[in-house]
Amino acid sequence: MNIKISLSLTLIFLLLFCLGLCTEQIEKKVHLTNGIDESAGGGFAYIITTPLAIYYLEKEGGGLSSMIDKDGVDWLGFHSKEGSAHKGEYRGFPNAIHKQDGSYFHAMNAKTDPSSSVVEIELEEHIRITFTTDNKKWEGQWDFYPDRCDFTMNKISDGYKYWVQYEGVPGGEMDSTDFWYASADKKLHLIVEPFVGDLPSPEWMAFGDQDSPRVLYMLHHEDDELPDNYVSRPDMTVLGFGRQNKDKYLNNVQTFSIGFVESTEYSKIDKAVRGILD
To answer: pLDDT at residue 66 above 90?
Structure first.
């Protein structure tokens, strides 16, 4: 009898121990690994896994190459193939510095200049990776949380400006079923409808697909009176905070969030986005 009791207690202990390990793994909300983004052309990437998204942060260029939702759909669709243009090499986030004092913070394509990176924070609910451009004049900070990713331009080259963009494919493909919402009004807008002007505070825009139960949003943490323009291309979105036509307007430290909201209702999206700033 004593042997049976001892064995039972041992089994119970082992079971509880295993459950403890499983619980620990579940509670680790943000997980960092290193790998390759095969869908983007095989570039080396930091892979950040969260409850709502898997982010591929390309190591050499310093920009997101893929952003995959809970159903395995990539809402960026970057590919490094030269000449693929809107169908691949132009896509990504934040695509911030383009043909002025270098081209940086874009997943590496034929025209992207390189940056170096360092992992500064690696906690259960927060990962921070900072990139410095090869000319040492720009610095971008990435912060990953369970519900979103933040990009902060921490250092700006003297005399230059930048923009922050979402160039991607809502629901995995740019088509007539896509739409957008914004802080400017509560209307659902068809994906081909442009926006020209300054988004009201809090400055945000969200993109969706009628076949998806979620949207991808971008939020500008600081309110300003600068242009925030959106225009569609045949194969991708072009939303630029601090952009009008091909002109850049941002010239100081700014923070931007990108993430998914598991709803397509305006009120729920607006509430979730506003909650980031609380």
So the answer is: yes
